[in-house]
Amino acid sequence: MFGFSAHVLIRSLIVSLFAAGFIGFYADAADQPQWGQAWSRNMVSAERGLPASFDPASGKGIKWSAQLGTETHSTPVIAGGRIFVGTNNGHPRDSNQIGDRGVLMCFDEQTGHFLWQLVVPKREEDVYFDWPNSGISSPVTVEENRVYLVSNRGEVLCLAEAGKAGEAEILWRFNLTTGAGIWSHDAAHSSILIQGDLLYLNTGTGVDNTHKRIRDPKSPSLVVLDKRDGHLVAREMENIASNIFHSTWSAPSLGRINGRDLLFFAAGNGIVYAFDPAQSRDREGAPSRLHRVWQFDFDPTAPKINVHKYNSNRRESPSNFYGMPVFYENRLYVAGGGDLWWGKNEAWLKCINPTGTGDITTNGLIWAYPLNKHVLGTPAISNGLAFIADCGRTFHCVDAKTGAPCWTESIEGEAWASPLVADGKVYLGTRSGAFYIFAVAREKKLLSKVNLGKPISSTAVAANGVLYVSTMDRVYAITR
Distance (Å, rounded) from C-alpha 332 to C-alpha 328? Predict the structure, then answer.
């Protein structure tokens, strides 16, 4: 078994276990073991019997709720009777662990009872490596009896139950900084995608603390690891890093076109790429190069050189991505635009034909729909409709085939979360603490609006007939 000795683990990554451990992680059909729908990353669930309204004040529809830290940006993941949520240490569960930390909490799915937590020390070299109080921002990915995640330290971890005591053993750890040569920025955010024995993930590499310099232009934005031991199998070699405007927060997706699998990646330089998936190989030698099939310039009129001189320019700058590309019915849907903190206000939802090769910037664009201002979410595509919300405080419903607007709704607060479509409803939380439930329809129908009192960064999740919603400091399990 790969990993570290127990005493080394305790010193490096402190694991606090309460009650039951990692027993029974095997995902049922109705579990939600990763962020988004299977390989496609579509924000759509097949769950039924979900609520059209609820009320935390009166308890209506609240199955249970549990306290998190004080900042929670990670979307919950549900597998094997467990709920996994990344957060910070703002409300310490362990009196021996006080102060700023990254924390992965685990709860019982049925009762909300707190089971255990993984506590990860902060990086201390530079505040921009591991932003204060941001906690573990990456959602986990669960497969059988393994849990994969990227910690706040920019380390890929594989966790499993270990020994009769049920303690969380780290089977292996891959440090993206020392192992892949990346330069972490702000908060590591990645949702790991699994295909066979391989893990695909964005690296989180970005600018340094000046926001005007790329320390290592050769660092990879996309890597492939062997899930069995964390060995680096492959990486992109497209010279992406040199033109990253801020950082690399968009996780990859996969799709099958005419019997061929393609890996889709929205990079921090404003380019969307398609690669041939990597192949498993012997664990010796340098990582192989991911073969690029096509590239699509999401913002072709944006600046391409000296990109960081446009920092804080709200009228002109490069584009980048936060949400993931979504593959749906042989089309790719991508939301992107100017950076929320450093770039221009312009943003779009675009539909791309992913069947070509080479540079498909011109002939690959099917339609482009302008958003109001900045976008951080991943679109949800269902029933011929595309849903996305932006930081211009607007929720959009668009015809998925043509890009024609169906309706919009003004919302309270910026939308950092992605919409979730499930059971004929669209669920969306905002940074004001407002939570909206719309009908999935070409004509606007607001079913309910709930004030949860604290900002919402993460996407709502449906699993086993229950809706899960996280605010900054609490996770709710909601039923009809």
Answer: 6
Q: Where are the alpha helices (DSSP H) in 21-71?
A: none
- What pTM does this model have? 0.94
State which fold the 189-367 domain adopts. Lipocalin (2.40.128)
The DSSP symbol for 11 reads H
56 Cβ contact list (under 8 Å, min separation 6): 62, 65, 450, 452, 453, 476
Say if strands 82-88 and 446-451 run parallel, antiparallel, or are unpaired: unpaired
CATH class of the region 1-30+74-174: mainly beta
Segment 59-63 mean pLDDT:
98
pLDDT digit string (tens) for 90-130? 999 999 999 999 999 999 999 999 999 999 999 999 999 99
Calpha distance 105→439 (Å, rounded): 32
pLDDT tens digit sequence for 34-52: 999 989 999 999 999 999 9
Closest CA to 369 of 326, 321, 336, 413: 336
Q: In sequence order, what are the beta bridge partners of 388?
A: 396
3-class SS of residue 307: helix
